[in-house]
Write a structure and sequence with these properties.
CATH architecture: Orthogonal Bundle
Distance between the termini: 29 Å
Number of strands: 2
Family: Belongs to the binding-protein-dependent transport system permease family. CysTW subfamily.
Main location: membrane
Order of helices and strands: HEEHHHHHHHHHHHHH
Subcellular location: Cell membrane
GO biological process, one term: transmembrane transport
Pfam family, one: BPD_transp_1
CATH topology: MetI-like fold
Largest sheet: 2 strands, antiparallel
Number of domains: 1
């Protein structure tokens, strides 16, 4: 028994060392810095202080944090609405399943910045969307889509949609089809069978997809920088500016630590309310 445990730890040691040096120690360092005193211009006085957390929850930053949560939540919800039918179609696509999955993963092969730059061309006043709407007579003047919250939501949905499709697809793919056959034999309509069987059984996939979509969407700053010209901010912008522009390491560390805690709470809830089989959807 002891030999088996030692063998297991020996096999896991490379991963544990990696996590120790590239996750646990850096997060611990950030946690320590967040409770130090800011001397300005990146100066650190190792004296306990909670000023960074008071500043993080002040009116100045609380509005941006709340705004980020709303935008990330709305983007995540729209990803669910768009991704679920597509994932359902892929799970029942038969011989076309692999081809459709390949198309879902194609955006991962393209630089994220290039994908967002493409939306600048589409959304600006002289862009393709406005030009097409004016040409067919739907609008008389160009719509203001770029440099607006709508552009941020579009960027979030477009950038993170594959992260929602794949977990939902995995959940639907693992579903036992005999439940649907039993529901049909008992007289359930397809819609009722979907509500009572398919949707509840795919809930872990929806939760996993929401988790790996919402958290990155909350902290991303590239989308707001490019699609709003920096006029609108999210938490990621504040963290970047705190470290790079303001040189306020305490504020940047405090906000980073709060986001890390949010991730850990989300993972804990996912583990608590799902089975071990469903947890593989996060991998």
């Amino acid at each position: 028994m002891i030999r088996t445990i030692r063998s297991a730890y020996t096999m896991l040691s490379p991963s544990l060392i990696w996590l120790l040096f590239f996750l646990i120690i850096p997060v611990g360092f950030i946690a320590v810095i967040s409770f130090t005193t800011n001397l300005g211009f990146g100066g650190i006085l190792y004296k306990f202080s909670t000023d960074a957390y008071r500043l993080a929850f002040s009116t100045l930053y609380a509005k941006v944090i709340w705004q980020s949560i709303v935008w990330a939540a709305l983007g995540t919800f729209l990803c669910i609405v768009i991704a679920y039918p597509f994932a359902y179609f892929i799970a029942n696509a038969g011989k076309w399943k692999n081809m459709l999955l390949l198309l879902v993963m194609v955006p991962f092969w393209t630089n994220f910045l290039i994908l967002i730059y493409a939306w600048i061309i589409l959304l600006n006043s002289q862009g393709l969307i406005n030009s097409l709407l004016i040409k067919i007579g739907i609008i008389a003047e160009p719509l203001t889509m770029l440099y607006s919250p709508y552009a941020v939501i579009i960027g979030i949905v477009y950038g993170f949609l594959p992260f929602m499709i794949l977990p939902i697809y995995a959940s639907l793919e693992q579903m036992d089809r005999s439940y649907l056959e039993a529901a049909e034999d008992l007289g359930a309509t397809p819609f009722r069978a979907f509500l009572k069987i398919t949707l509840p059984l795919s809930a872990p996939g929806i939760f996993a997809g929401s988790l790996i979509t919402f958290v990155p969407a909350l902290s991303v700053f590239v989308i707001t920088d490019l699609l709003t010209g920096g006029k609108l901010l999210m938490v990621g912008n504040i963290i970047r500016d705190a470290f790079v522009v303001e040189m306020n390491w305490q504020l940047g560390s405090a906000l980073s630590l709060l986001l890390t805690i949010l991730v850990l709470i989300s993972i804990y809830l996912f583990i608590k309310f799902t089975s071990s089989k469903d947890r593989n959807l996060l991998l």
